[in-house]
Design a protein that fits this description.
376 residues, alpha/beta, TIM Barrel, Arc Repressor Mutant, subunit A, 2 domains, three-stranded antiparallel β-sheet, 23% strand
């Protein structure tokens, strides 16, 4: 309980993308950096009061929005303030999300000098037409330049975000994006399908997307290219070189605990298992957050714990084992029955000793698996 992840949300971006359902807000004036940093530290102090032991942070993930809109000086103040409140180990993973349209050599060198050691760049595509359809503010040339700047700044741990299944995207264009990403030699690639999420412009005015079989065949070829280049898939949309998995996200997918600070940020804290597992949520509006940093706190209903655990764990290729389930939920293994047996009999899950993981069929029908664990 005393070792947690820390998620920090920066809610502003240059422009809201039509597919984006994250809590992001287009900047109309200059971002209130110093005020926001001050409130973030107050937010962290308040969440720490929910715990009765000193805390060690195992990973920090600064997401958005576009965190790279903030100056290195702002992040220096933030990280210095965090270090006064919690223990930060020497091997701490600190990830910063960045948009190619915000890259400046000096700024990213300064980020790296602060101890930010993992960068995640939102490329989405290297194709000018698809970038325009996605409403991205950067060009293909700026994307390539941003990656070069990241390498020059010393970011050995570098993730590139890529989307597939885009409007009018041919299979050849999908493959070209992946080949270009591989050629830039990042340590990690996030490769995920465009989905039309509720409360987005694309959901209200849906673009024409390629047929499912077209997308699937292109995805299969791209996954083959990633594997051949040494990027092992360890989660539905995550591919990493050896030793370069995102520690913060793995903790999340393994039903680990984490603090969430910033406008709209979510957190999870296991005060006692299974009786008191808390979810924290902060106000979504940046203005409201700056004026009132109070968390909304709810307890996870015990009957919902099996489903919550599996929704995360089964995203991982390695699945889960029953000992870990009992440790992280406080529930007995039998609380997963008869769902586990049903899924194994249907060929959706594979059992090896105490470990369960998705079969090739189950990987494509994860929703069908999870239906077996819905609370009665």
């Amino acid at each position: 309980m005393n070792t947690l992840g820390l998620y920090i949300h920066i809610p502003w971006c240059i422009k809201k993308c039509p597919y984006c359902d994250f809590n992001s807000h287009a900047l109309k004036t200059e971002a209130p950096e110093q005020q926001y940093i001050s409130v973030l530290l107050k937010d962290l102090q308040q969440d720490l009061r929910l715990l009765d032991t000193p805390v060690t942070i195992r990973s920090i993930f600064i997401g958005g929005g576009t965190p790279s809109l903030f100056s290195a000086g702002a992040f220096e103040d933030l990280l210095t303030g965090i270090a006064k409140l919690v223990t930060l180990p020497e091997d701490l993973e600190i990830t910063l999300e960045a948009n190619p349209g915000t890259f400046e050599s000096n700024k990213f060198a300064a980020y790296r000098a602060l101890g930010i050691n993992r960068l995640s760049i939102g490329i989405q595509s290297f194709n000018p037409h698809h970038l325009q359809r996605l409403g991205r503010v950067h060009s293909a040339e700026e994307a390539l330049t941003a990656i070069e700047i990241a390498h020059q700044a010393g970011f050995e741990r570098l993730n590139l975000d890529l989307m597939f299944g885009l409007p009018d995207q041919s299979r050849a264009a999908m493959i070209k994006d992946v080949e270009t990403a591989i050629a830039m030699q990042p340590s990690h690639i996030s490769f995920y399908q465009l989905t039309l999420e509720p409360n987005t412009y694309f959901h209200k005015f849906p673009p024409k997307l390629p047929a499912d079989d077209h997308i699937f065949l292109g995805q299969q070829r791209c996954q083959q290219l990633l594997a051949e280049a040494g990027y092992a898939q360890y989660e539905i949309s995550a591919y990493a070189k050896k030793g370069d998995r995102c520690q913060h996200n793995v903790n999340y997918w393994q039903f680990g605990d984490y603090l969430g600070i910033g406008a709209g940020a979510h957190g999870k804290l296991s005060i006692s298992r299974p009786e008191k597992i808390l979810r924290t949520v902060k106000p979504k509006s940046p203005e409201q957050y700056l004026n009132n940093v109070q968390s909304t706190i709810t307890e996870v209903v015990i009957d919902e714990l099996p489903l919550e655990y599996l929704m995360n764990q089964l995203r991982l290729k390695s699945g889960f084992n029953l000992d870990h389930y009992q440790l992280m939920t406080g529930l007995k293994a039998m609380t997963l029955e008869p769902g586990l047996t049903t899924c194994v009999d249907q060929g959706l899950l594979i059992k090896q000793d105490k470990r369960f993981f998705c079969s090739a069929k189950g990987w494509n029908f994860l929703d069908d698996i999870l239906e077996n664990f819905m609370p009665q």
